[in-house]
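Sample intake sheet
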Amino acid sequence: MSIKVIGAGLAGCEAAWQAAKAGADVELYEMKPGKYSPAHHSPDFAELVCSNSLKAERTESAAGLLKAEMRRLGSLLMECADACRVPAGGALAVDRHTFSAMATEKIKNCNQIRVYSQEVCAIPEDGVSVIATGPLTADALAGEIQALCGGALSFFDAAAPIVTAESLDRSRIFAASRYGRGNEDDYLNCPMNKEEYERFYDALLHAERAPVHDCDVSDPKVYEGCMPVEVMAQRGMDTLRFGPLKPVGLRDPNTGHRPWAVVQLRREDRQGTLYNLVGFQTNLKFGEQKRVFGLIPGLEHAEFTRFGVMHRNTFLNSPQVLDSDYSVKTRPNLFFAGQITGVEGYMESASSGIMAGINAVRRLRGIPAVTLPPTTMIGALSRYVAFGGEADFQPMGANFGIMPPLAEHIRDKRERYAAFAARSLRDLDRVLPV
C-alpha cells in the first residue's frame, strides 16, 4: 500500500522523500500547474514564495542548528539548498528557481514516488496519508480539514518585492555585509539620512493598500515574523530604524558615517541580476509600491520584477488536534506537515515534513512513531506543536526559548547558544538512525 502525500511544497517534498528513502511507495499529489494559489507562480515543487533566505547559517544560531539537524536526517531540501546557494553574508540564501527545479527533478526521478498533477478535494479515508498543503490550502480541502479538526485559524502573510540589479543607481548604494560578515557584495545597502528617512516614512504611512480578497476576515491577524512594512511603520517613526532598516554594523563609504537608516537588498540569484528588499513584505497597491519605494536612495528608477503581495495563511490549533509525531489524535493514520501545523518558516516547515514522512512509514509498518528529543530543535518544534498552548496557539519558528534549559546557567549569549547546539547534536546522534 502506498503512502499518500498531498502537496509538493517544502514539507510535502520532504515527507515524500523520507518515506521513499525508507523503501515505501509514495503517491504525491500537487494541484499545480492546473491550479495555483494566490501566492504561487512556478509549476515547480518546493516553491519559495516569500524570501529566498533560509536564515542564519551558523550552527550556534537557532536557524543554523535546525539546518544542521536536517542535514543529519538526510534532508532533500538541504541538499538542494547547499547546491543552489547565493552569497548572503551569514545567512544561507538560494537561487529560488534553481532550488525548486532541483527539488522537482529529484522527486520526479525517484522510482518510489509517483507524482499526480491534480487537486485533492477530500481527505483520504483509507491508508496512511500526509497533508502538507500549506498555509494556502485550496478551499475544498480546507473545508474538509475544518470539519475534521475544527479550530483552524487564519492570518495573513506577505512577500517582499524584487528589483533588477541593472535598474539600481549604484552611485547612491554601497555593497557591504553587516559587521563585515560574509563577502562585501553579499548585500547592497541604500543609506538614508534623517530627512530622506522621514520623507519615506511619511509616504509609507499614508500609502494606499491593496484589498485582500482571498479570506473573508474583518480583522485579520498579521503574524509578527512576516509583518507588512507599512503595518510595522504604524507602531512609530523609529520602529523601522530598529527593525529591518537598522543601520548598525554598516558605514557608508561616501560619508564615512553610519547612516540614519539603511534599506538592504539581498541577491535573488547567483548571477546577481535580481535583488529583494529585505524585510519589505507589503500589501501596498503595486503603483504605490513603485512610488513609495522609489523614495529609497538608489531605487528611484528601480524595475520591479515582482511586487509585494499579501495572502491568506491558515493553520490548525494543533495542540487540540495533533500529537507530537504530527499525526491527528483522532485519526492516527493521518498526518499533517508544514506551516499548516503551526511551525513558521521554510526550514521549520520542511523539518516537520521530514518527521511526518518518517512516522508515516512507521505507521504503515506497524512500528511505534518516533519523536526527537526536546533538546533538539526539530524535537522542540514538534513538542510545541503538540503542547504549545491551546488557548492562544500561534505559529512558532526555531528559537532556543522552546528548548529545555541547560543544566548550568551560561551568562554569555554566544557561549550559551553554542552549548544549546552542542547538546542538540550530541542528543540527536544518540538516536540516529530514526
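Comment: The chain has two domains: 3-152+316-431, 159-312. The radius of gyration is 22 Å.
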